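Anti-sigma factor antagonist structure dump, as promised
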Amino acid sequence: MYTHTEQFGVVIVSLEGDITMQNAMTLRNWVVDNLIKKGKSKIVFDFTRVNSVDSFGLGTFVSLHKTALSANGTIAFANVNDNVKKLLTMTALDKVIKVFPSVMDAVNSIK
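structure tokens r here:
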């Protein structure tokens, strides 16, 4: 469903398409069940192939952030386009979840 790799103990989840009410809960459940519950709570979401995120999608990432923190982990975003960056800034979510220009920058920050 989602492709992921691991580097230095950090899981990189490659997202594709828009993150919306139609698919955000599926993403959340997949991350919790397949990663966080299995002890992989340091996660970078690669937004290279994501065009937009709606408010439900943002809420899903807030929930994942809280879940990862409770498992002694964290999440970060990489390769976010200008539209999504603007939304993260407007909602101040970029102050809660770190945003990096590349996957390697994000991995190095949270490993």
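The mean pLDDT is 96.
lmk if u need the other ones
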